[in-house]
Design goal:
Blueprint lengths: L3 E5 L1 E3 L10 E3 L2 H9 L3 E5 L7 H5 L4 E4 L24 H16 L4 E4 L1 H9 L3 E3 L2 H4 L14 E7 L4 H6 L3 E6 L4 E4 L4 E5 L5 E5 L6 E4 L9 H22 L9
Parallel strand pairs: 1-4, 1-5, 5-6, 6-13
Antiparallel strand pairs: 2-3, 7-10, 8-9, 8-11, 11-12, 12-13
Length: 251
């Protein structure tokens, strides 16, 4: 039996996708990547935060995908008009509750882009609201209307991420204009050449990693290794819960 990986969806409550309707949606690349690596992806519709623990009880791992923006902590006159496409507050509240429930259950947890930023905020950290203004750099990170970018990252050798990705460096695809300025209680696991935090991880959890780039495209060796390690951790947790050896996870 393949391990079940829960993937929360995005919420469009403002009728941007279909006028007059609240719509739930997801980039299918996340589900495809989980399936390609041996997992059984299950989409988690936005629900009330108080039901998050019940939802988490039905999955073996949580993947927090990319999404829209978080509001700036403070207003700045030099932020361009229209640069922020804010995630729906109802979705953020549910995603945050899922994250707390997952970590409390010591469940394998992987945050991607928005997912990593949410991890940092939930751990008492802070974000760069708009990188071109808050942390100008010659390294292109994409997002905010800019095309996707590919750049190098350096991975901390002693990190859980280095073991999972089987690498101490990689080239990754980025699509973000926000970034983690302060990881809070998380440990930094990777940097871009300009010093921007590219990955964080919980120092005391079996598998709790956030990455700023988009590994779901499985474009590089480190991307595939990271997703396979995540699904393998989910399989091990499922097997432990069922009293059986892990099955179905690609290694």
């Amino acid at each position: 039996m393949r391990p079940v990986v829960g993937i929360p969806v995005s919420l469009d409550a403002r009728g941007r996708l279909r006028g007059g309707r609240a719509t739930l949606f997801s980039d299918r690349a996340y589900a495809r990547a989980v399936a390609a690596c041996g997992g059984a992806p299950v989409l988690l519709p936005t629900d009330a935060p108080e039901r998050a623990a019940d939802v988490i009880a039905h999955v073996d791992a949580l993947l927090l995908p990319g999404g829209d923006d978080f509001p700036p902590a403070r207003a700045r006159a030099d932020y361009p008009d229209g640069v922020f496409e804010l995630a729906d507050p109802e979705q953020v509240a549910f995603d945050a509750a899922l994250l707390r429930a997952s970590l409390a259950a010591a469940m394998p947890t992987l945050g991607i882009c928005y997912g990593m930023q949410l991890m940092a905020l939930e751990a008492g950290g802070a974000l760069h609201a708009h990188l071109p203004v808050d942390a100008p750099s010659e390294v292109a990170h994409g997002g905010g209307g800019a095309p996707p970018a590919v750049h190098a990252i350096a991975i901390e050798a002693a990190s859980r991420l280095a073991r999972a990705a089987r690498a101490d460096a990689a080239r990754v695809e980025s699509r973000h204009h926000q970034g983690v300025a302060d990881p809070g209680r998380w440990r930094v696991a990777a940097h871009a050449p300009d010093g921007l935090i590219e990955a964080i991880e919980a120092p005391d959890a079996p598998f709790a990693i956030g990455v700023q780039w988009h590994p779901e495209g499985l474009a590089g060796e480190a991307d595939g290794a990271l997703l396979r390690a995540f699904v393998a951790a989910a399989a091990e947790r499922a097997a432990s819960a069922r009293g059986a050896r892990p099955r179905g996870a690609a290694r």
